[in-house]
Amino acid sequence: MKKGKKLRFIKRTLSNIIQKTKSDKVKIAITGIGECGKASCILSVYDKMPHILMGNMKNIILAGNSSEEFFKKYGTSLIIDNIEEVLDLLKDIKEEYNIILISDNNIDEEYKKYISSIITYKLHGLSIYELANMGHMQKPYLPQDRQPCIISRKSISYTYQLIWRGFLPEAALIEDNKLLDEIISSKVEKILKNSIMGCINISNKLIFLNFLKELTLYIGCELNISELAEKLNMAPNTIKSWIKLLESINFIYLIPAYYTENKRRYIRTPKLYMEDTGIAAWLLNFDEPKKLEEYEKRDKFFENFVVSEIIKSYHHNGQECRLYHYRDNLKVKIDLLIEDDEYIYPVNISGSKDASYEMVSSFEKAALHKKLGYGNLISLSEKSIKLSDRISAFSIWEI
Predict the structure, then answer these.
(1) Which pTM value belongs to this model?
(2) Which of 16, 61, 172, 322 has the highest CB neighbour count under 10 A?
(3) Complete domains list, the chain, with CATH
(4) Residue-wise over 385-398: b if at least 16 C-beta within 10 A, else e?
């Protein structure tokens, strides 16, 4: 990328949570899609600890041949980045070591197999709160009749420009849109090289890129493996294995379908979302934000954006979230269900400026195993509106 102004520093919401657990006796692991700022987040708290990159071939050889020599050289208080390169090292991390682990991969089970006391966190791209320098004020989102409304409402064109750029720090913070193609291309190349190419048997990178492009067309939709396999002339099992790989490296996520014991009533296909909307727009060749804004399926990109922001509100506060989508054989659909110990809260998402009760009438028709909590419609509306005694509509910028 051409040299330009230094990107402004963004304090991550998660760094505040990590600061609170900072201790010589606490072991931490942080995971998330490549290039989302995991190392920067950790180093903003543990700035004095040595940061060891396991992408370095010499370090892989040293750790692989002798963990004793590795810890003798670097010490037992350090940050180990790309730990997925040398997972055998985990079994030699002793209780008294002060170790922080960073990985692009979801390897929680590997951590817990060897380190029972580890705390794991997940980082995503920048949230809208972080972009507004208000990351410390973001709380896990739950539908309610009054939302915080801390961030000023933005225009539709600004919103789609943000979705088009995506939320990986370097892409989200650049001022020159002309540099975006080069930045995203570089990010995708790195992710493919570091996390994918060694895991799958493909002779031509183009095959995998075409698969990614077709997969992107399903964002915000139920994932139809058979249909996708037919389009690409590939075996369904290959498609399944590649999707599982993309999930494991935090490139995509699947929101499971809600169902209870009466399984016949519910449609059980998960919905697909991309971890970064900027990469999704790049894969579909949208070379300027206006093209995304005029795209016939732009609502699906908006839905992806909203779901991502909800997930960030939990993970960046160090909390898990239980999310589902709902569809049954009576054609009742709800975009998102958020479950806590007592209630299930319904959320519908619309990329329009309109808000009406008809857009959320499905909430009371769903067959759920818990009490129905307060419901929200999240859209691009210009003002918050009470749609019923138990449902309100808000702009994405108000939640």
Answers:
(1) 0.95
(2) 172
(3) 13-122 (3.40.50.300), 128-398 (no CATH)
(4) bebeebbbbbbbbb
Helix (H, G, I), strand (E, B) or coil at 77: strand
Q: What is the pLDDT of residues 2-45, one digit of tens each?
A: 445 567 889 999 999 999 988 877 799 999 999 999 999 999 99
Runs of H (alpha helix) within 21-142: 38-43, 57-65, 67-74, 108-114, 128-131
CB atoms within 10 A of CB 229: 17
* Amino acid (1-letter code) at residue 78: L
Strands 28-31 and 119-122: parallel
Please tell me the distance from the alpha carbon of residue 13 to that of residue 315, in angstroms, as a whole number: 9
Angular region, 245: left φ>0, alpha ψ -120 to 50, beta rest: alpha
Indicate the SS3 state at residue 25: coil
Residues 6+ apart with CB under 8 A from 231: 214
DSSP element (H, E) containing 156: helix 156-165
Quote the tokens at residue 287.
């070379």
- Tell the burial category of 362 from Cβ atoms under 10 Å away from its Cβ (0-12, 13-18, 19+): buried
| Cβ-based neighbours of 91, under 8 Å, separated by 6 or more | 114
In the DSSP assignment, the letter for residue 192 is I
Q: Which residue has the tokens 């995998």?
A: 208
Radius of gyration of the chain (CA): 22
